[in-house]
Write a structure and sequence with these properties.
Blueprint lengths: L5 E7 L2 E7 L5 E3 L17 H7 L1 H11 L7 H7 L7 H36 L1
Antiparallel strand pairs: 1-2, 2-3
C-alpha cells in the first residue's frame, strides 16, 4: 500500500466493506457489495419495539443466567464452620465451652438445692 493511500471502512447494510481511496478520491472495492435479502434488519425500531421483538430472547437469556443460590460457594460457606487449627483458637474455644458448662451446672445445682430444701420441708 502506498503512503498516499489510506484504508477506509464503509458500512453497507449489515456488512462492513473495505475500500481504498487515494488522493483523487477514487474508490477501489476490495470486496463485492453484499446483497441482503433480509430487509427487516435495515429498519429502525424504537426501544419499545425492540423490547417487544426481543422479549422471548431476553427471557431465555435471563433464565440461562439464573443461578441456584443454594449451590453457590458463598451460601455453602455461610452455613458451615471453617476449621481453625491454631493452638490459641483451640484453647479459647475450650475455655468458652468450659464457661458455658460451669454456668449451666451452677443453675442446675442451685435448682437441685432448692428442690431438696422444699422436699425436706414437706416431709
Amino acid at each position: 500500500m502506498a503512503d498516499n493511500n489510506m484504508l477506509l471502512y464503509y458500512t453497507y447494510d449489515i456488512s462492513i466493506k473495505m475500500a481504498m481511496a487515494d488522493n483523487k478520491q477514487k474508490i477501489h472495492w476490495l470486496c463485492d457489495p453484499c446483497i441482503c435479502t433480509n430487509q427487516t434488519q435495515t429498519q429502525n425500531y424504537t426501544y419499545t419495539e425492540w423490547r417487544e421483538i426481543l422479549a422471548s430472547q431476553l427471557e431465555q437469556i435471563k433464565d440461562n443466567m439464573k443461578l441456584d443460590k443454594k449451590r453457590l460457594s458463598s451460601s455453602i460457606r455461610k452455613r458451615t464452620c471453617a476449621s481453625d487449627y491454631r493452638p490459641s483458637a483451640e484453647r479459647l474455644g475450650i475455655i468458652g465451652a468450659g464457661v458455658i458448662v460451669v454456668e449451666i451446672c451452677i443453675i442446675i445445682f442451685d435448682d437441685l438445692l432448692t428442690l431438696v430444701m422444699r422436699l425436706k420441708h414437706l416431709v
